Amino acid sequence: MNIQLPTSNDEKDDDGKPKRTGTLWTASAHIITAVIGSGVLSLAWAMAQLGWIIGSISLILFSLITFYTSKLLADCYRNSDPVSGKRNSTYMSAVKSNLGKTQIWMCGVCQYAILCGTAVGYTITASISAASIHKSNCFHKKGHEADCSISYSIFMIAFGLIEVFFSQLPDFHNLSWLSVVAAIMSFTYSLIGIFLSLGQIVSGKGGTTTLAGTVIGVDVTSMEKMWHAFQALGNIAFAYSYSMVLLEIQDTLKCPPAENRVMKKATLIGVSTTTLFYMLCGCLGYAAFGNKAPGNMLTGFGFFEPFWLIDIGNLAIVIHLLGAYQVFSQPVFAIMEESAIRKWPALRLLTKETTVVRSTSFPIKISLFRLVWRTAFVVTSTVLAMMMPFFNDIMGLLGALGFWPLTVYFPIEMYMNQKKIRRLSGKGIVLQMLSLVCLLVSLAAAIGSTQGIVVNLGKYKPFQAKS
C-alpha cells in the first residue's frame, strides 16, 4: 500500500519495497490504537440497552468472532506459501488474489467508506472530549451555575488542523511512534473511566441495573427499546473493528519470522487486551450509571470534582484519536496516491518530494500532491463531522456497515478458497452459518443506528451543536 522512494538493493524486500522493520510490539501497538478507540466510551450505554446477560455475552462473542476471523485474514497476506508467496499488502489485493475481480468492488466500497466514516466519527469524538475539558474548567473557575456551553465546531476545526500536519507522514512505516503514544493514551482514559466507575460504585452512588437493561415504560418505550438494542450491537461491533486495516498493519512486519505467525500473536495480544478493558469499562460503567448510562462514558461523571482527573481522561482521548485517525486514514491516502501514479506514471508532480528537515532519525519530506489531496480529505471529514455530530448513532452505523463484510464475510470466503473447503462440508456449513448470523446482526444494527440518525437530523441545525 505504501508509495516509497527508490533505495539500494540491500535495503529492499522481496517485492522491491524498502525493508520492513515492524515487530510483534509495533503491530500490537497499531492494533490497540485501532481497536481501543472512541467505541469504548459507548460500551456502558450499550450495556444499559442490552442488560447484564445479553450485553456481557455480546461483548465476549464479538471479541471471539473478531479474533477468529482476524486469524483467517492474517493467512491471506501471502498467496500459497506463508513465507515466499506473493504479498497482499492491502485488503483489496487479498480479495483480488483469493476471490477474483468480481468481489473487489464490494470490498473497496465497504472498506474505504468505513475508513472515511471513521475519520468523521473520530473528529466528532475528539471534539466532544475537548469541549468537555473546556466545560469542566469553566465550571471550576466560574461556578456550577455558569453558562459554559461552547460550539463543537471550534474543536473540530482545531483537530482537523492538527490532522493536516500528521497526514503528511508518508505511510504506516512512519506511524509507529504515533501509534505507541496513542496506545498509551487509550490505556490512560480507559483506566480513568474504570477507576471513576469503581469510585462511584463503592461510594454507593451507582445506578439501577437490570438483567435486561432499560425498562420499557420506565426508561424507554417498546419501540425505543428495540431501536436502542439494535444500535447498541452496532456500537459493540464498532468497538472491535480494525479488520479493514489488518493487512496494512501486517505489511509493516519484517520477515523472518513469517508475517502471519507474528500477526496472529499481535492479534491475540491486541484483542485480548481490548476485551479486558471493554468488559471492565462496559460492566463497571453500567454498574456506575445504571439504565441512565450516557452515550459517552466520561461525560457522565459530570464536569465538577475531580475535574482534573476527568480532564486528563478527555485529553488522553483527544491525543489517542489524533493517532487513530491516521491509522484508519493511511489506507485511503495510499490507494488514491497509488491509483494516481498508475494512471499518470510520467507526471513528476505525483512523486516529487522536497526535504524540509534533513534529519537521519526523523527526516521531514513534503510532496505537493500529498499536501493538497490529504488536506482536502481532512477538510472534508471535518466539515461532515460538523454537520452530523451524533456520537452514538454514527459509531453504531459505522460498526454495523463494516462488521459483517470486512470482519466476517471476506475473511471466511478467502479462507475457504485458500484451504479448498467445500461449502457443503461440515466446516463449510459452520463457517457460512457464522457469516449469516453476523449478517443479520449487522443489518439490525444498521437499521437501529439509521433510525437514530434520522430522528436526530429532524431536530438538529447543522454547525450549531454545543456542549
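[next item in queue]
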Amino acid sequence: MKNIRSREKDKFGLWVLTWPIFIEMFLQFLLGAVDTLMVSRISDDAVAVVGFSNQLFNALTTLFATVASGAGIVIAQKLGSRREEDARTVAVISVKVTALIGLGLSLMLVAVPGPIARMLQLPEELMPLAIPYISIVGGGMILTALMSALSTAIRNTGNTKGPMYIAVAMNIIHIVMNYGFIFGELGFPQLGLTGVAISTVTSRLLATVMLFLIFLVAFERRIGIRDISLFDRKLFKEVLVIGWPLGVNSGSWVFSQLVIYSFIATLGSMELAARTYMSTLETFCFLLGFSLALAVQIQIAHLYGAGRTKEAYKAVYRSLSAGLPLVIINTWLLVLFGKHILGLFTQDEGILLICGALLWLNLALQPAKVLNMTLGNALNAVGDTRYTMYVSLTVMWVVATGCSYLLGISLGWGIVAIYGCMIADEYIRSIFCYVRWRNRKFLRMKEAELQAA
C-alpha cells in the first residue's frame, strides 16, 4: 500500500501535473499570439473577426464540455478509489458522446454561418471575412470536441505530458501553415484569413489523431474496436450528475462573454479589435495560475476518490499560494511592457489608447480570475458542481452581463465600464466559492461515508 501511495504521489503531485499543463497552455497562448500577430498583417478587421468567431466557438464548446469535464472528474475519482475499469468505461463513453455533439455543431456552422453572425450583432462590414472563416473553422467543431474529450480523459489518468507533446507539434504545424497561407510562401497559395481557417482545422485534425493513439493505451487494459459499443447507464448518469452543472457553469461564462462581445461590437470595430488584442495579452497573465487550477482539480478529485479528505482540503491553498504571486508579477510585467508588445500587432492610435487603459484594469482582474478558477475547480473536483453553477448563473448575468449593458452601453461609459463589471463579477464569485470550500460540506459527507463503510 505504501508503494502504491508513493507511485500515486509521483504521478498526481501538484507540480508533476502542473508543468506539462502549463507548457501545453503556454504553447496554446503562443499559438494565439502568433495567430493574432499574423492575422494583424491582413488587417485589424480580420483580427476582430477572429476574436469574435473564437467567442462563438468557445460558447458552442460548452455543449460537449458537459460530458468531457464531468467525465474527467469521474475518471480521477474512480482511479483514486482503485476502480480502473469504471474509469476506462467512462472515458470511452465521453469520447463517443462528445463526438456526436461535435458533429451536430459542425453541420450547423457550415450550413448557416451568416445568420449566426448577424444574430450576434457582428458589424456588417466584417461579414465578407467572417462567413468563410466561421464555416471552415466551425466545420471542424467535431475535431474540437474529440480533442476536448481525449485530452481531458488522458490528463485525468495522471498523464499530462502526452497532451503537452501533441500541443508542441500542433503549434509548429499551425504556425508554419499560417505563414504559408497568409504570405503565399513555402509553396502555399496566398489565401489570407481563409488560409488561417484551413490551417486551424488541419492542425487540429493531426492533433486529434495523435491524442486518439495515446487514448487507446491510457488505461491498463487497451481500448479496442469492441469498445465502440461500450456503455454503462449508471456510470453515464454519474458523469451527467457532475457534468451538467459544469456545462451550465462553463456555458454561463462563455455565453455571457459572447453577449459582452456583442455589446463591445456595438461600440465599433475599433473596440472589438482592442478587446481581441487584450484577450491575447491577458492569457499571459493567468497562464500559470490557470495551469495550477486545472492540476489541483485533478489532484483533489483523485484524493477525494481515495478518501484522503484532509489532503484534498489543503491542496487548494497550496495552489493559491503559488499561483497568486506569479499572476500578480506577470500582470505588472504586462502593464510595464504591454504597450510595446501591442505595437507589434497594430499601429492604430485609437486601439492602442483603449488597450492602454485596459492594461491597468488587469491589475485587479487577473488575481480575481485565479482565485475564482482555483476555488471553483476545487469545489467541482469533489462533486459540488451545482453550487458553482448557481453562483455563476446569478452573478455572471447580473453583474458581468447586466451591469456591462447598463453602465457600458446604456449610460455610455464604454469598454472601461464593461471591464469594471467583469472585475466585480470575478471577485464576488470567488468570495462565494471560498466560503463554500471553508465549509467543507462535500468533504465531511465523504468522511461520513467512509466511516459508515
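[queue empty]
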